[in-house]
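Researcher: Re-running this chain for the archive, since the previous output was lost when a drive failed. Same request as before.
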Amino acid sequence: MRARHRTGRAPRTEGPDLKIVLFGLGKSGTSALFYKVVNSVPGRAIALFEPQSHGPVDRAREHLKALKRGYVARHVVAKVLPYGRRPVRLADFDRFDRQVLIVRDPRDRLVSELLYRSYHASFARRDEAALRFVETLRRKEEDPSGVPLLRVVEAFESLEEAGGSVAAWLEAYRTEAVARALRFHDERPRLMLFRYEDLVDERFGAMEDYLGFPLEGDARVPETLRRVVRTRGYGAWRHWFTAEDVHILRPALAPFMDRYYPGADWETAPAPRIETEHASLYARRLLDERRALTGLSPLPE
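Model: Regenerated structure tokens:
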């Protein structure tokens, strides 16, 4: 991550127990922010990674686990994906003391989410199909401006068992990642807004003031979740998007951009470059990890 900028040190909270929930779409930096907060909160905390609920039974179970590990947890920190793969009882987390919404430039998030989908792809178990997707990414790496990002989307959708057209994918994306995300925030106007880009640049002043303690802990994601980490940066969309992508995606992403990134430009990189490590090799690694879970060997070279 980049050099840290501070606006002052927040006082360390030693008062009442805190319940902190971090909301965000997948691939928005939720995991890194979660571990940053967990490792910074004063005293021991119950750390809930993508829980589905936090009712009385859940709370009793969590405290019992802490006691068995030899400590009494003062605080609770939860990372919640409102619209993840599993349904969440959001009312449980709406009661938390500190509620944060992390958002990310939707153009960067779109690229990251598309690549991460490799881990859940139904075609991961089929050698030929998985290699075809990896090859599409290689072509994109070789000619970033000549292969639109939407061609990569098209390749993915054509290989998925439940895939559809690019138009259908775009409509679903507009509904879930734009309209529904904005509605979630509209329904919770008191959420503290935090941008992924400030996480990368380590600009935590406003967040520290809100939480009441300095964020000096490690944001490193455990090895078991390393697959969620890709570039740890932002702005790479300029190398992935072509003029065709901008023409089609700009109207779809406009409501989100207008809300959280007003005035942002849409200029693509004049000499785009995509690193293999963050594209085809990353997707291949996720495909192999998924295959290993079902007893399959890595993809052939």
